[in-house]
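Collaborator request, handled under Task 6.
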Amino acid sequence: MHELLMADNIMDVVDLNASIERVTAVKKIVLEVGELACAEPALLKKYLELALEDKFAQPAEVEILNIPVLARCKLCETEFRLDDEIVACPVCNSVDIFYKKGREMRIKYMDVVE
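Structure tokens returned to the collaborator:
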């Protein structure tokens, strides 16, 4: 259910940019959401679609791009993609890793009507 709060926070950013740029409607918004961002993409999309329609009185398309998890081993510095629930370096089996990608969430772009 925290996707509702995420959608609300994203709408704060949309509102701010809409007022600065004098936008009258948003036709499309594209988000990048990491696999470890703790968001259910389908719910986030639905809440954003509802919020955008409520705000601008017309439907808007919401596209969510998945960002896979990319990690780096702190021991041997191997970079690798995490594809399963086992969180260990595939080279040295160390679990001391750094997540380079996969936890972020950001608005990539918005297609707007001025």
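The cover message to the collaborator said: "DSSP finds two helices and six strands in the chain. The mean pLDDT is 91. Please let us know whether this matches your experimental observations."
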